[in-house]
Design a protein that fits this description.
four-stranded mixed beta sheet; 11 strands; Zincin-like; 2 domains; about 240 residues; alpha/beta
């Protein structure tokens, strides 16, 4: 066996970069014809997709040859910024001004252009996060009900996620988890993730039947929604850490 294919199975899949050790998550897909590499939205892991017959050592070697690319992608990640008065916050694809007045009511008020809120500055971030999570649950529940009705399914249990690796997931038991940060994305992008997970309630794979059902359920361009997440998704992690 070639040396580069030797690997101790007890060692986690990871690669060494200049200033960190980066975990590597490997996905083997039946339809994959080559190896591809990308960085997770929050920079917590490298993701390699490869043919089903591929070897873990081969995937790691592939990632190592692209270490410079990974370094550049990590350097380009947005820095975490806590929301504050005078700043902005994305909500449903719109960038809203944060109008904060400490002496005013803590009750949040939403206008076409701004989020108006009072109360102490030191609790502003946590309160805005709770508001976003509440809005996320409301909107995602509506989305889930809509797509389940189209698919002729009973609504499953919905849980909010703050996952660092996935926008959504669906368990074998039918529970659906969606990342609350999608409330900051455009409605069509958020809804694409929900439609994706509802399609998984019927087809627990990425087969042609799955993609056919997803195309029937989702009312917009799924490829465009995926492109938005690939292009802008990392920015959703720049708020609240």
């Amino acid at each position: 066996m070639l040396d580069w294919l030797k690997r101790d199975p007890r060692v986690p899949a990871q690669i060494e970069l200049k200033d960190r050790t980066l975990p590597v998550v490997i996905r083997r897909l039946a339809h994959a014809r080559r190896l591809t590499l990308r960085l997770s939205p929050d920079g917590s892991e490298a993701r390699v997709t490869m043919p089903r017959w591929g070897r873990t050592a081969e995937a790691l070697a592939f990632a190592r040859t692209r270490a410079d690319w990974l370094e550049r992608q990590l350097a380009a990640l947005p820095q975490t910024v806590a929301p504050k008065g005078g700043g902005t916050l994305a909500f449903r694809g719109r960038l809203l001004a944060i109008e904060h007045s400490p002496g005013s009511s803590r009750r949040l008020r939403l206008t076409d252009e701004a989020i108006v809120i009072g109360g102490p500055a030191e609790t502003l971030g946590p309160r805005l996060r709770r508001w976003l999570a509440t809005e996320a649950r409301r909107l995602l529940a509506e989305d889930l009900a809509h797509y389940c009705a189209l698919a002729g399914l009973a609504e499953p249990k919905l849980a909010l996620s703050n996952a660092q690796r996935r926008w959504g997931s669906c368990s074998a038991k039918g529970a659906v988890r969606i990342n609350w940060r999608l409330v900051m994305a455009p409605d069509a992008v958020r809804r694409s993730v929900v439609a994706h997970e509802v399609a998984h309630l019927v087809h627990f794979d990425h087969s042609a039947r799955f993609h056919g059902l997803l195309g029937d359920l989702y009312e917009h361009d799924i490829a465009e929604a995926n492109r938005w997440l690939k292009r802008e998704g990392r920015g959703l992690y720049a708020v609240f850490g």
